[in-house]
Design goal:
homodimer, 260 residues, alpha/beta, two-stranded antiparallel sheet
Chain lengths: 260, 260
């Protein structure tokens, strides 16, 4: 049976109704599964309430020490534990963790010649052994996008990247399906037309679409990462609306990326 | 070898230097160990910064929905993950969790005829099996004092109680030493004299001390709970200064409660 690794986007988390309906479908997925969540605007709201000014450097948000504290509280505390409690209520035995727990994801502080990103981590290593133990015990792992540097420093890390790294790290142990679920219906052929979802994209078709500049700018890094994951042994990547999670997995909604 | 279950008090957590020196000693303890932390005044400070007024009912703090959000963020997020990251740096493979994770501690919302405590949980059940699995894998468990009701609701739960419940639940599997570490040196014979620590207290001696009203009022519930834990199979209970953790465990500092 396939191991499903599912990332949910921040906008789903911000919407109580959408989140609950997503978790309902998530809990019903048969077999082993891992959920990776972002934090969305809850962290930004908390920063505003605490009057912690968000700094930007060449268009990128900087995770300074105070912002790191907020994302650690909001992602690894509030959001993570609420998702776990709700899954428990649906008889889905979940455990909420971040990359520091069990030394699951070791990362290093991003270094860049001109931009100071602050406490942002780039992943070095996924500790597969402990993840395998948790999955063996039929635990559903709920992952907050915080990692550590093994020297005592927590680091804010992109949730899409974490999903991809975990998927690749587990690809030699399971048939892995990686799912990016958010508020859009999938990869659109025509950005103006929400019904123009492309059901399947192969690497060849993807390079055609890129040449024709048919892929929305914001979608390109996601798709590049998705194809990199496929090249590293992940079986399928599915992209689509969190509200359609069951149909995404069945392949009857959203966009499925495949090897051929 | 003894399983050590160690509760650290909030005042240690508030003091960066004391916390780091405690964690150094904690990481050096040989054998299996579990750390339970409170949150101290960090949660109160956060409530003040967010202008969330703390409500009191007949002298007791009420955990309303907003306060529950804060304690979940601060205890299960900020404090828990920072402790884990620091232990990882000391080659202590730790995992930070709360009672909702793995359904480890199921509780119910406290009901009281006259006082509304809000989202405060009283423990029903500790899921020993999953804890045993984590300990078997040589994971050091770091526990935030949040539980859940298995119906989706997180609950704020007393950290001393959690330590005691976990100790009792594991007493049939390990020789358990339960340690309450805080800023005081132990149980004092003379409250005015910090050097008057009582090294050992048996149940018989305890009832004598109670009769003579020698036990400080605030210490009585701690000691009552400690003796209850001993009666339920816990081997030793040690009470003393977090700065003396190694000596507490060796029995050369603090107060040790024993069966006889």
């Amino acid at each position: 049976m396939m191991l499903h690794i599912i990332k949910i986007g921040g906008n789903i988390i911000n919407d109580e109704g959408k989140l609950l309906s997503f978790l309902e479908k998530f809990a019903a997925i048969e077999g082993k599964k891992i959920l990776i969540h972002g934090g969305g605007k809850l962290a930004t709201e908390m920063a505003e309430q605490l009057k912690i000014r968000q700094h930007w450097n060449e268009g990128r948000r900087v995770t300074d020490a105070k912002t790191l504290k907020i994302v650690t509280m909001v992602y690894a505390g509030y959001i993570n534990k609420n998702i776990v409690a709700r899954l428990q209520a649906k008889y889905c035995n979940a455990i909420g963790i971040c990359g520091a727990d069990g030394n699951l994801i070791q990362a290093h502080k991003r270094e860049h010649a001109t931009i100071d990103y602050g406490y942002v981590g780039d992943v070095d290593h996924v500790n597969v052994e402990f993840l395998l133990k948790l999955l063996e015990q039929d635990m559903t792992v709920v992952f907050a996008p915080i990692t550590h540097d093994k020297a005592g420093q927590l680091l804010n890390t992109n949730a899409d990247t974490i999903a991809q790294e975990i998927a690749v790290a587990l690809a030699s142990h399971f048939e892995v399906g990686l799912i990016y679920s958010f508020e859009k219906s999938g990869v659109l052929l025509d950005l103006e037309n929400p019904d123009s979802v492309i059901p399947r994209i192969s690497p060849v078709y993807y390079s055609e679409l890129r040449k024709q500049e048919k892929i929305a700018h914001g979608m390109i890094p996601k798709l590049d990462n998705a194809f990199a994951a496929l090249n590293s042994g992940v079986k399928k990547v599915m992209i689509g609306n969190a509200a359609d999670l069951d149909r995404l997995i069945a392949g009857t909604a959203g966009t499925t990326l495949t090897h051929e």
